[in-house]
Write a structure and sequence with these properties.
Helix content is 35%, strand content 21%. It is α/β, with parallel strands linked by helices. It has two domains: 6-189, 2-enoyl-CoA Hydratase, Chain A, domain 1; 200-416, 2-enoyl-CoA Hydratase, Chain A, domain 1 (Alpha-Beta Complex). Strands 10, 11, 12, 13, 14, 15, 16 and 17 form an eight-stranded mixed beta sheet that branches.
């Protein structure tokens, strides 16, 4: 069993001497309470594997429900640390009611306050369901997360349930070395997020100015690192959908933004990329975090394998999320913006579309269009798909050199930060899954 107590982990999560435990009594298997992170209120609970193997009983469930209820009333984030062998079977059917209420409370909080799950040991069954209902799941390298225990599953899969398996399947958003790294990563993420959906998203940490040179050669992570505040970039779902990058970061020292980059021109996008981007943009939209989409890609993988993996389903989800998102949306074209990828990612409908001087904008892949029109690819680009042509037609708002990218994005985000959009009266869009 782990020798690291819940109290020690909570000391790492919160500001010094800023945690207050609630309903403190021995034997419940959960330590719960509230405190401050960078001066802002946060609620948290930690399952204690050292007490009855962390078994969830009615007392533990009552504490967890109290945290969710308090958080929604006060508009404060929740950090939940999971490390339990499962529910206490001695509780019988009463445990069903306890889990139902916890799941209902977690669902009520979704999109209202940030929810972060930290998995430091075993997290199984309905515990795993509850953990994944959060906005972000952080797992340690030695943790395990599964609905059905791998050792009783009819079909055995190598490494099923471990951290890498969950990262590659899109369940775990971030993998870290150990428990201390996990709660520190949760703290880092919270410093980038608003306390709730009614407050602006500003970085609460201390950042150094980023004066890194930006050139046309910078792509993907290197470009995002150069654009974001120093040490503020946190990649999300890095092992799922590897042709695209989603990351939280700061811009201009304080403004939190969501970065989406599919600027690996040599790689085609997959259904996993579409699903990853859609989920990330949906989160940003819930908390009015501006989304900066960086594009240099000719579209999605053209194969039957991609179709059978759900390409239509996930591209429809991507289009639906981008189109319905009312948060500020900025597109930066660093190379080719062609085909469905640009259209589905809301390229033409962004609040601002900024492009490098050598960018290419085309509704279909360059080779396909040139062949259809009986032209060379160079002639097609010059006559139809040049950035100058896109600027004249109103598809691009601003043409810049790469060295101007950071300032151009800062100005664009500042210009639309207070954006207001009227939407049809409805409970919610019918999300495609």
């Amino acid at each position: 069993m782990s020798q690291i107590t819940p109290g020690v982990l909570l000391e790492q999560l919160f500001d010094e001497q800023e945690f207050t435990e609630i309903q403190k009594y021995p034997g419940s298997g959960v330590v719960a309470g509230m405190g401050k992170i960078a001066g802002f209120s946060v609620y948290a609970y930690v399952q204690d594997i050292n007490v009855k193997s962390g078994a969830v009983n009615q007392n533990a469930a009552a504490k967890m429900k109290k945290i969710y209820a308090s958080a929604v009333k006060c508009g404060a984030p929740v950090v939940a640390v999971f490390n339990s062998k499962g529910g206490d079977i001695g509780e019988g059917t009463q445990l069903i009611d306890a889990y139902s209420e916890m799941i209902e409370n977690a669902a009520r909080l979704s999109g209202v306050v940030p929810l972060i799950s930290v998995v430091t040991g075993q997290c199984s069954g309905l515990n795993a369901t509850l953990a994944r209902m959060s906005d972000f799941v952080i797992m340690t390298e030695s943790a395990a997360m599964f609905f059905t225990p791998p050792f009783i599953a009819e079909e055995r899969v190598e490494n099923a349930g471990n951290a890498q398996f969950n990262a590659e399947s899109g369940v775990a958003d971030v993998i870290v070395k150990d428990e201390f790294d996990a709660v520190l990563k949760a703290r880092e993420i919270l410093l980038l997020l608003p306390s709730n959906n009614l407050e602006p998203a500003f970085n609460s940490g201390e950042l150094e100015p980023n004066n890194a040179d930006i050139t046309a050669e910078l792509k993907s992570t290197e470009l995002l690192t150069a654009l974001a505040g120093i040490d503020s970039l946190i990649e999300i779902n890095g092992c799922f959908g590897s042709s695209a990058i989603t990351a939280l970061g700061s811009l201009n020292y304080y403004q939190t933004v969501g970065f989406v980059a599919f600027d690996k021109p040599e790689e085609k996008l997959t259904s996993a990329d579409a699903a990853k981007i859609a989920r990330f943009v949906n989160f940003c939209d819930a908390f009015s975090i501006p989304v900066i989409t960086i594009i240099d890609n000719e579209g999605f993988e053209p194969s039957q394998k991609a179709e059978s993996a759900g390409l239509i389903r996930d591209t429809a989800k991507l289009a639906q999320i981008y189109a319905s998102a009312t948060t500020p949306k900025i597109s930066l074209i660093t190379g080719k913006a062609t085909g469905a990828a640009f259209i589905l990612a809301g390229g033409f409908k962004s609040d601002f579309v900024i492009a490098y001087e050598n960018a290419v904008v085309s509704p279909v892949p360059i080779k396909t269009a040139a062949t259809f029109l009986g032209q060379s690819q160079d002639d097609y680009i010059e006559n139809h798909a040049s950035v100058e042509n896109a600027l004249k037609k109103g598809y691009v708002d601003l043409v810049i050199s790469p060295s101007e990218a950071r300032n151009a994005l800062i100005k664009a985000v500042d210009a639309v930060r207070d954006k207001r959009v009227s939407v049809p009266s409805r409970k919610h869009i019918n999300l495609i899954f």
